[in-house]
């Protein structure tokens, strides 16, 4: 819906792409959180995103994680604190620069991988019921283009080091 002549119309949030995307993301995160709790794992969807990055590339620093998940460094600090309290990750000083802390998975963080990935996959499958693969691909392509347009409009890459190619190609 274009916003031309908005003064003559009542704005309908249910017809707003931004509102729908936000509400959908929040609802999906909430469901994933609930499903993690049901299997006895007190991990949030945001913490899960950090774990996914570490499962792919263990030993990242907080700035690298922040860039990969599109969050600021302060948010990542809080998420890593929570994961550390749950004994899923540990901070270790970088041997080449002791000021730099690298985040590593613990044995427990590695152990829960298959369990969490299974719950995430089941959750997505449940939430995508009744939607064809073609429609899902089209939806993702449209969202990638909108995101690319947002980055272009902002004339910035969200955070220094943010990997635009990963998110829009």
Describe the model.
The chain has 169 residues and is mostly helical. It folds into two domains: 9-128, Orthogonal Bundle (Arc Repressor Mutant, subunit A); 130-169. The chain is 60% helix and 7% strand. The chain has helices spanning 17-38, 45-56, 62-69, 73-85, 107-111, 113-127, 133-154, 164-168; strands spanning 60-61, 89-93, 101-105. Strands 1-3-2 form a three-stranded antiparallel sheet. Strand 2 (89-93) and strand 3 (101-105) form a beta hairpin. Helix 1 crosses helix 6 (113-127). The chain is globular. The model has no long low-confidence stretch (mean pLDDT 89).
Helix and strand topology:
Elements: H1 17-38, H2 45-56, E1 60-61, H3 62-69, H4 73-85, E2 89-93, E3 101-105, H5 107-111, H6 113-127, H7 133-154, H8 164-168
Antiparallel strand pairs: 1-3, 2-3
Helix pairs in contact: 1-6, 3-4
Which terms summarize this structure?
169 residues, mainly alpha, Arc Repressor Mutant, subunit A, 2 domains, three-stranded antiparallel sheet, 3 strands, 60% helix
The total count of strands amounts to 3
Proportion of strand residues: 5-15%
CATH architecture of the largest domain: Orthogonal Bundle
Span of the ends, CA to CA: 25 Å
The total count of helices amounts to 8
Uncertain regions: pLDDT < 50 for 5+ in a row?
none
| C-alpha geometry | globular
Percent range of helical residues: 55-70%
Category from helices, strands and their pairing: mainly alpha
Give the integer mean of the pLDDT values: 89
Mind telling me the C-alpha Rg?
A: 19 Å
Quick one: CATH superfamily of the largest domain?
A: Winged helix-like DNA-binding domain superfamily/Winged helix DNA-binding domain
Instruction: Please give the CATH class of the largest domain.
Output: Mainly Alpha
Q: Under CATH, the topology of the largest domain is which?
A: Arc Repressor Mutant, subunit A
């Amino acid at each position: 819906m274009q916003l031309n002549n908005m003064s003559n119309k009542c704005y309908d949030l249910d017809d707003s792409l931004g509102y729908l995307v936000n509400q959908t993301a929040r609802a999906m995160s909430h469901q994933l959180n609930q499903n993690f709790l049901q299997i006895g794992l007190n991990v949030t969807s945001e913490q899960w995103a950090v774990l996914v990055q570490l499962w792919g590339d263990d030993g990242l620093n907080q700035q690298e994680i922040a860039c990969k998940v599109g969050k600021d460094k302060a948010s990542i600090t809080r998420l890593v604190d929570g994961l550390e309290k749950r004994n899923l990750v540990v901070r270790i000083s970088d041997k080449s620069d002791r000021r730099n802390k690298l985040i590593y998975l613990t044995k427990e963080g590695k152990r829960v991988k298959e369990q969490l990935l299974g719950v995430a996959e089941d959750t997505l499958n449940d939430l995508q019921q009744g939607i064809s693969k073609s429609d899902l691909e089209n939806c993702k392509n449209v969202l990638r283009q909108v995101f690319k347009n947002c980055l272009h409009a902002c004339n910035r890459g969200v955070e220094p080091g943010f990997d635009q190619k990963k998110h829009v190609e």
